[in-house]
Amino acid sequence: MDIQTAPHSNKSLPQLPLLSIEKLSVYVQSKICLLREVSLNVQKGEVVAIVGESGSGKTTLAQAIGQIYLPGQKVELTGSVRFNGDELVGLSDSALRKYRGRDIGYVFQDPYGALNPIQPIGMQISESLTLTSDISFDEAFEQSVQMMEKVFLPNPRELFWRYPHELSGGMRQRVVIATVALLKPDLIIADEPTSALDAALQQEILEILLEQVRSEHAGLLIVTHDFSLVEKIASRAYVLDKGRVIEEGMIEELLRAPQEPKTKALVSAFRRLECQV
Ligand SMILES: Nc1ncnc2c1ncn2[C@@H]1O[C@H](COP(=O)(O)OP(=O)(O)O)[C@@H](O)[C@H]1O
Ligand SMILES: [Mg+2]
């Protein structure tokens, strides 16, 4: 759908980007710069990719948007991150918590950290419903089981009561995706969301993320090193190298005529894979 003519847009006003990042820099230990003056935007209903080789700063950028850090991790941000017009840089952790979950949903590379080890996984999935609306536990249970079926978790009625350590990495990743899908956030940030999954499941999981974009008009920011995934789902991409955006554009353009050597290398890795199929 053309974003400018989306039904909810007010044609007399320029549309506010869902996410607008201006000159965002990230420092650790006061002086080490992990991300330098990154600017990017994501509109409602748009799928945008952050692409770069390992160590280019993709996860640093994804984490900086919602300022998701481990306790004790000391990170400084400069620049601006606006979500629906609200500035997030400079907010306290408790103010930021209001944006995480309902507004900005994360699907991380390592799903273990996102799950509570001492709570059954089904309870964690159903909390996205029970904590945000007044439905009964039975209703939340049924909706959770349906979502678990959608993400291909086997025997969901029984699996509901299992703990994270009893599941494989790929199953835990699907638990996180089920939780995010039920929360229906305005923006989903997915950091290598399918890297723990086998090829057959990858496609199905991408479909579930895309359904959030289509039916809920969510924005999806997908982080990956893999142009074949980018080509399947995103319309635009930003290429990161050493913490900077070195190139950006529509996917077809980047694939057809990459300008920077690092972009060319990522594209040719994808072309080689294509030839092998
Ligand atoms: N807390 C930290 N302190 C120092 N260096 C870090 C820290 N976190 C990440 N880095 C470094 O920043 C760079 C970017 O890391 P990362 O964002 O994880 O890259 P990517 O996700 O693209 O693989 C890497 O060189 C990594 O070693
Ligand atoms: Mg990473």
Write a structural description:
It is a single chain. This protein has 277 residues and is an alpha/beta fold. The chain has one domain: Rossmann fold, CATH 3.40.50.300. Helix content is 38%, strand content 23%. It has a six-stranded mixed beta sheet with strand order 6-7-8-3-9-10, with helices on both faces. Strands 2-1-4-5 form a four-stranded antiparallel beta sheet, covered by helices on one side. Helix 3 packs across helix 4 and helix 4 crosses helix 6. The longest helix has 18 residues. The N terminus is likely disordered. Bound molecules: adenosine-5'-diphosphate and magnesium ion. The site of adenosine-5'-diphosphate has 11 residues, from strand 2 and helix 1.
Provide key terms for this protein:
277 residues, alpha/beta, Rossmann fold, binds adenosine-5'-diphosphate, binds magnesium ion
Short description:
The protein is α/β, with parallel strands linked by helices and 277 residues long. It has helices at 58-66, 93-97, 121-130, 137-150, 156-159, 169-183, 199-216, 227-233, 251-256, 261-276, and strands at residues 19-28, 32-42, 47-51, 75-83, 86-87, 104-107, 187-191, 219-224, 236-241, 244-250.
Fold topology:
Blueprint: E1 19-28, E2 32-42, E3 47-51, H1 58-66, E4 75-83, E5 86-87, H2 93-97, E6 104-107, H3 121-130, H4 137-150, H5 156-159, H6 169-183, E7 187-191, H7 199-216, E8 219-224, H8 227-233, E9 236-241, E10 244-250, H9 251-256, H10 261-276
Parallel strand pairs: 3-8, 3-9, 6-7, 7-8
Antiparallel strand pairs: 1-2, 1-4, 4-5, 9-10
Helix pairs in contact: 3-4, 3-6, 4-6
Magnesium ion is lined by residues 58-59, 109, 191.
